[in-house]
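Hi there,

I know you've been waiting on this one. I reran it after we fixed the sequence typo, so this is the corrected version. Both the input and the resulting structure follow.
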Amino acid sequence: MVNRLAQSQSLYLRKHAENPIDWWPWCDEALETARSENKPIFLSIGYSSCHWCTVMEGEAFSDRAIAQYMNSHFIPIKVDREERPDIDSIYMQTLQMMTGQGGWPLNVFLTPDERVPFYGGTYFPVEPRYGRPGFLEVLQAIRRFYDTEKGKVEAFKAEILGNLQQSAALSGVTAELNHELFQKGLELNTEIIAGSNPGPSFPMIPYAELALRGTRFNFESKHDSKQVCTQRGLDLALGGIYDHVGGGFHRYTVDATWTVPHFEKMLYDNGQIVEYLANLWSAGIQEPAFETAIAGTVEWLKREMTAPTGYFYAAQDADSFNTSEEFEPEEGAFYVWSYAELEQLLTAEELADIKAQFTVSRSGNFEGKNVLQRRHPGKLSDTVETALAKLFAVRYGGNPDSVKTFPPARNNQEAKNDSWPGRIPAVTDTKMIAAWNSLMITGLARAAAVFGNWEYLELAVTTANFILDNQWTDGRFQRLNYDGHSAVTAQSEDYALFVKALLDLHQASLTLGNGEEGKQLPNSQFWLEKAVQVQEEFDEFLWSVELGGYYNTAKDASGDLLVRERSYIDNATPAANGIAIASLVRLALLGQNLEYLDRVEQGLQAFSSIVQDAPQACPSLLSAIDWYQHSTLIRTTPDQITGLISQYYPTAVCQIEADLPEGVIGLVCECLTCKEPAKSQERLLEEILQSQTRV
């Protein structure tokens, strides 16, 4: 017997379709049922590749006694946070208010009338363990509390709602966004990347990108920002977080040594990391492992994460099956190697070289098996490359040259029942998310410009065209695509990141417009025009005229929300407002439209109190301040453009200028003022550097 979620397009929701719990999706009918029956809402939020979400689905949500009580006393609602990040953001904030921490699965109990939470938590076991009560015990206690403590429920509700509204309004005193505030923010965010952490290791790319921006200044600091940024790149490219056999980056490592990953692969991480490693290279930190990791990630993207129609899939699970007879998948099974396997597959010389270059031992580093982590930077030997190709063949059933596409397993049944030539792969969530695809487009566009790789640009262009051609319904941008069907009105991160991606394509296309065998891609002006069009829609539906900045959701798609939030805190992905404000500066430079600068100033003032009080929470806003304070337009000739765009000028945009005066090779403009025309490359580079570091 299946429940209402069986018809959902979301892989995460469908995973719960056979639960005995009578799940509802988030919809008006569910909310009205809760009101009319005066039943508290049990809201559970997660995502398909979340390990503990999967565990709870197989335990508490599959328990019939729990389901019987849940169905009688609550209205249970399931939400995929990747479909509705606006809902997730609000209730994650409330959970953090109530408990001081958050995470997924996110489980909160809401009043049926106003949907305000009065209790919450993350993972609940069936029986008491890990210092947590059993879930049925929790449900019974919550229902007693709701029925008998109406006064306390109302007090909780009033406090939570008041805090949410205050947080959404950002009613702090505006601060002056001067150079000293920017420098303070750089220092604090660089310290986050530089600091040692005994717990899990996350990429934290918005922080690393901001720290990299600081390398061009001569600020006094207790940190060598170039060394800090280089080390973050090495941790990523050499660590077990990178899949050295198949390419692509895992979500994070569970340790401080970047060794053992939590094995899911998320598109949003990979897009950001590719951009960061390309930026490191362009900044002169040309470590061969960075180029190798970018190339390997692109191969993984083409092989496993690209739909036939051209967009990129969302994620791959951490867990997979060793055999088709297994009932439950095992974490990391697709990726790890026993020492006995390595002895059997590799020659003595290959095994010796693998042991010299990677953390391989008989005892292993993950449950008796080995996660490959490089010991040293630099290029790998031919012997090691041959050994890695042999491991690839075991995993994928063919050598890297022959396995160009590897179809996804869309669910556990496909994974177990299909005939795979190698190991059984992890399940892939094949939905298209506009924001995440945009991050990958940006990474590919930047890598294409830095390495002069036309194939990277072509891949980015194909995906951007898919979004432009398929993600508008009734004239409105849509966030998701399920097998050719667009869904869910776009949110601020979709608009912000897609505008940025289009602008990044504009820059890369200035140098790589034509490819191999006479192929031609849209010219740079095409991407700029599309960016302007998307920005106009963004401004119309999500800009806050009263407060400044962009709301997470459109004004006509937020009636079911407690508050309309404006994203400014960076998490695993950059905050929409930081990205959006930076793009407004770029649009102002390229289009010479001062209305964009008005929005920049209003937006930065709207969040200035946050930047002053908690700069470590908002590196993307600090990057936007960097764009505002150091914005540079370089108008130059086609002969100069390739060399300039491949360099690291983080607050500059380039434009080909056909009508420069005779003998002039470039004109550097700082927002509304232009410098003396440069007649030599040396002078041009000197003016760019001065503009990029001006106070």
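Quick highlight: The CA atoms of residues 279 and 648 lie 6 Å apart.

Best,
R. S.
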